[in-house]
Amino acid sequence: MTQGFDIQRVEAITGMSSWTIKRWVKKAKERGFNPEIDQRILTEYVEDDPRPGRPKEITQSTEDSIVSSIRKDHAGHS
């Protein structure tokens, strides 16, 4: 890749397809990524866009509580 990234190496490290990597780099560039200035790809360059559809009906606190209880073993210990 012309940005200084070896796509095969990135594929091997991440396990992602070259198509996915190219799509992420394209998205990052559209959001301000400039590898000539800084080669770090920041989270805001590649984070997911808001998803369409019905919003969640539970609060983040409730969701966190549910996830926490699921992660505990069957004896109730984390």
How would you describe this protein?
- Residues 58-68 have a biased composition (Polar residues).
- Residues 48-57 have a biased composition (Basic and acidic residues).
- Residues 44-78 are annotated as: Disordered.
- The structure is a single chain.
- The protein has a domain at 1-49.
- 3% of the residues are buried.
- With 78 residues, the protein is an all-alpha fold.
- The model has no long low-confidence stretch (mean pLDDT 84).
- It has helices at 7-14, 18-30, 43-46, 60-71.
- Helices cover 47% and strands 0% of the residues.
Count up the helices.
4
Would you identify the regions where 5 or more consecutive residues have pLDDT less than 50? none
The count of DSSP E runs of length 2 or more, i.e. the number of strands, is 0
Backbone shape: elongated
Please state the CA-atom Rg, rounded to the nearest Å. 19 Å
The amount of helix comes to: 40-55%
Strand residue content? under 5%
Short description:
The protein is built from 4 helices and no strands. With 78 residues, the chain is mostly helical.
